[in-house]
Amino acid sequence: MNVAVREPRADAAQRLTIVDCDIHPNPRSPDEVRQFLPQRWQRHSAVFGNLSREMYSDTIGYPRMAPAISRGDAWPPGGGPPGSDLEFMRRQHLDPNGVEIGNLIPLTTRGPDQRNLDYAAALCTALNDWQLEYWLRKEPRLRGSVMVPAEDPAAAVAEIERRADDPLFVQVLLPPRTGEPLGRRRYRPTLAAAAAANRPVAIHVGGQGGHCVTSTGWPSYYIEEHHSNVQTMQSLLTSLVVEGVFEDIPGLRIVLIESGFAWVPPLCWRLDSQWKRFREEVPHLKLLPSEYVRRSVWFTTQPLDEPERPRDLIDVVSWLGLDRLLLSTDYPHWDYDDPRQVFGGILNAREKAQVYRDNAKAFYGY
Amino acid sequence: MTGDNAAAAAGVRAAGAPFAVAPIDCDIHPAVPGIRALLPYFDELWREMIVLRGIDKLALSLTSYPTGAPATVRPDWRPASGLPGSDLGLLQRQALDAFGSQFAICNVLHGGQLLHSEDMAAAFCSAINQWIARELLDRDPRLRASILIPLESPGMAVEEIERCSADPRFVQVLFYAMGEMPLGRRRFWPIYEAAVKHGLPIGVHAGSGYRHPPTTIGWPSYFMEDYIAQSAAFETQLLSFVTEGAFAKFPELKVVFIESGFTWLPAFMWRANKTWRGVRAEVPWVKEAPPDLVRHHLRLTLQPVDPPADPKAFERVLDQLGSEDMLLFSTDYPHGHFEGTDALPEALAGSVAEKVLAGNALATYPRLRQQQSVREIAP
Question: Looking at residue B367, which CATH number applies to its domain?
Fold first, then answer.
């Protein structure tokens, strides 16, 4: 989908530095992660591999439109999949784009989704060790996400506590597609542990909850599956608000990653309108639903919603508040937003500094 | 017909009516009082089966519309006895006279349409459609109706459309927002072919047969979450119509989203457009940009409005819809979304009011258009 790739600009040092809240690192091969597993699980991984809730073990049910979901130019010249070569990532992304800090979001190994809960926990621990050894200790600009087994809150809490004193891990990562809506009480200990460790919970599109990707049956195309991430995030945000998670854990901070954000104001209008009709059913909500969102939820920018009239995005941003937006590129994926082009001319220099860098610094304490 | 009714039927404002133009209400919900009331409209075999199995003692009422909830029925619109919407006299006064409506489209929400048995669903739909004709349409000339079809059985659905379309008072075909498969999929196309042939838009009403959890992340705890999730299902359906090529295949097809909300639509169009620009190679038959297809083929009823709190922000959303042709007046009687007859938001009360109240519906429903012009010639 990327037809032309520009040469990295040499004057990076003079430009605005950025905090990129969505970079996807990949292991060069499965063994790179496997080596961090205990023997018992190394063997399990080699013999049984992933036991997931999807029909294919190596992709989703809708083959993507680009190999490894990635930009054509992101394959490292030395081999390995996109996102697997730190030196190449530096050359292609961190240096030319002036990345001051980049948050890693590992996706490919499906640690949080494993049906075998013990393997899920072991794999998440291994993925966290892999992040440390292969990325965080090698590159001071990078930060990690604590991977946790979504369906085993007790093990998730243990993993969060294990990483709580390591400042290189800046957030807890969960998928939006879980077995039950994330606001349901069974997941509350995981969310509470994140808040207690003073880490935001980052929710990146994807995951395998085992449910149909739409609420009305299986669609035919990848273009539909891709968009279904938006409806999924709508239900996730609804669940967190309506189930009373933010009443229960006032210190919880959520950042939703890679779902865009133009859908957020209309969802909040609907939540507020309908709350007036249904509040008898949800007496645990003390505030308007939108007030919980405004207080506790942040959003990354990619894929940036592109109105037909670009300036219409200003309406969305003014409703959400500029301080709620954190820049993300999604490097090395095909739908990467180029920080040099994204937002076109609709943000002035001061606003750009806020969204590209300062909001994330405040949010993560960088 | 009373004097007011006659005036409304000619499309002019009746004395005391709240709007400058007699509205066309595109979503009201008369209720079948009980399955017993349908028995005369089943054939002998089904009548025996229904009684034998005790189905006549059930209501088959939909989980997605809890009839007892004060939230879903306006307190002053609840009859003294029986199901909300089941008292025709009350409905005539409250849903028709009070708003001065020239037409109102009955969307009878009934579980019979969603039965897993294709045969029983078809029998129920046929019985309910006959009941609608005799018990509603024959008794008030302002009433029009949607055709109930067995949702998972395109063949029998087409048969029912062919049968009912002989009656010009049936003006649309009725689906639910959450079914077994997305509505753009090609198994449904024979239904759209029949609908287009007879000048019937495809109405998609909020609701679920719970074939799948109402969210893509599983079963929520509260009814409020199910209700909120309806708009996500409508987004899914819209994208399915676009990407499968249903709009390209049937250029005259009109889809009406009913009780869907509409303030989500601009953000949906932006995202659909962006993704289509990225991966359109997957769906080469989609030759027009999704927002253009949406504006041509989609209409949405007014209630619930789900507006932003700031009226200026609401005006911006209406502007971002990019078309004044899409919104169709509705009260959603007897579901409660507003006080009194205050169904038309201030932002729509200006120059666009005539279109929202009646003009857009006439443009959307060919059968209403024909009948209105007949009335005007020979009142």
Answer: 3.20.20.140
A 10 A CB-CB count for B20 gives 13
Tokens of A40: 């018992």
Q: Mapping DSSP to helix (H, G, I), strand (E, B) and coil, where does residue A326 land?
A: strand
- Put simply, whether B95 touches A (Cβ < 8 Å) is no
Give the per-residue pLDDT at A2.
44
Q: Please, which residues bridge with residue A145 across strands?
A: A171
Q: pLDDT at position A203, please?
A: 98
d(C-alpha A328, C-alpha A316), whole Å: 18
DSSP H helices, chain A, are 30-34, 39-47, 86-89, 117-131, 153-163, 188-196, 222-242, 245-248, 264-278, 289-296, 313-320, 349-353, 359-364
Q: Is the dihedral of CA B16, B19, B24, B25 positive or negative?
A: negative
How many CB atoms are located within 10 Å of the residue A305 CB?
A: 23
Tokens of B196: 């287009």
Distance from CA of A177 to the nearest CA of B (A): 5
Instruction: Say whether A224 and B240 touch across the interface (CB within 8 A).
Output: yes
Query: Please, which residues have CB within 8 angstroms of residue B54's CB and are 6 or more apart in sequence?
Result: none
Interface of B with A in 301-360 (CB under 8 A): 304-309, 313, 316-317, 320, 322, 336-337
Under a CB-based contact definition with an 8 Å cutoff, are residues B145 and B132 in contact? yes
Give the whole-angstrom CA distance, residue B346 versus residue B356.
12
- pLDDT at position A1, please? 42
* Side-by-side strand order, sheet with B143-148: B24-28, B103-106, B143-148, B170-178, B202-208, B255-258, B298-301, B327-328
Average pLDDT per run of 10 along chain A, which is 366 residues long? 48 75 96 96 92 86 89 96 98 97 91 92 97 98 97 98 98 96 98 98 94 96 97 98 98 98 98 95 97 98 95 96 97 93 90 97 97
Q: Does B272 touch chain A (CB under 8 A)?
A: yes
Residues lower than pLDDT 50 in chain B: 1-3, 377-379
Smallest CA-to-CA distance from B177 within B132, B214, B225 is with B214
Which of B236, B283, B320 is closest, CB to CB, to A216? B236
Say how many C-beta atoms besides its own lie within 10 A of residue B59's C-beta. 15
Q: For position B66, what pLDDT does the model report?
A: 73
Cα dihedral B267, B273, B275, B281, rounded to 10, equals 160
Distance CA A365, CA A169 (A): 12
| Domain extent at residue B110 | 3-377
Q: Specify the pLDDT at position B372.
A: 72
Residue of chain A minimizing CA distance to B266: A307
Query: So what's the ipTM on this one?
Result: 0.95
Q: CA–CA separation, A39 vs B251, rounded Å?
A: 62
Bridge partners (DSSP) of residue B170 are B145
Q: What are the structural domains of chain A?
A: 17-364 (3.20.20.140)
Number of domains in chain B: 1
Interface contact flag, B225 A181, Cβ < 8 Å: yes
Q: Is B215 helix (H, G, I), strand (E, B) or coil?
A: strand
Chain B partners within 8 Å of A270 (Cβ): 228, 231, 261, 263-264, 304, 306
**Which residues lie below 8 Å from residue A6, measured CB to CB, with a gap of 6+?**
none
Give the distance, in angstroms, between the CA of residue A56 and the centroid of all CA atoms in the same chain. 22
Are A312 and B320 in contact (CB < 8 Å)? yes
